[in-house]
Amino acid sequence: MDMNYFCNCDADTDMWTNDTGILSYKDHLPVSQIVIGDTNRTGSQAVYHVGSLRCYGDKSIWNAASFYQESSYLYFPTLQAELASDISFYFKTSSPSGVFLENQGLKDFIRVELSSPTVVTFSFDVGNGPAVLSVKSHLPLNDRQWHYVRAERNVKEASLQVDQLPLRLLAAPADGHLRLRLSSQLFV
């Protein structure tokens, strides 16, 4: 290729040359049209070939949301979790901390967050005061790799699982409040 030109077709050589590349920016896919110009001159010819489609990547991100600013969020209707909730998701980040999800009521709340580069915290309050479960990893969780989180709460106990780390459990108070009363939107 002649580096003085953007593509080989601009070089006007007498021999066949080849411009190749891989389309990896998903907003440019799928290929629905190819436009070849400047072939109306005498001796100009073009041949094109679009190779076979090879999709690859991470099957865990088929329904992923990406956040590129600290102020980014999604919001949903109030979490319906008065007596029980089961939350699971994968995350991948380089940020040292951040809230994954949060829903609040007048005093009650539920929250899952990366509270430090090595700690995921599940906290909630059903009227007995804040309950907090934390899982600490010996390796950073903000390593731009996928990590799994599962947080559960019911009238008997709460649990938090991160990757294959030991499960954390917290028994519900025997004579405490049971209902999680939320009123705001669920923020992710």
Automatic annotation (TrEMBL):
Residues 63-188 form the Laminin G domain. Pfam families: Laminin_G_2 (PF02210). PROSITE patterns: LAM_G_DOMAIN. InterPro entries: ConA-like_dom_sf, Laminin_G, Neurexin-related_CASP. This is Contactin-associated protein-like 5. It comes from Ameca splendens.
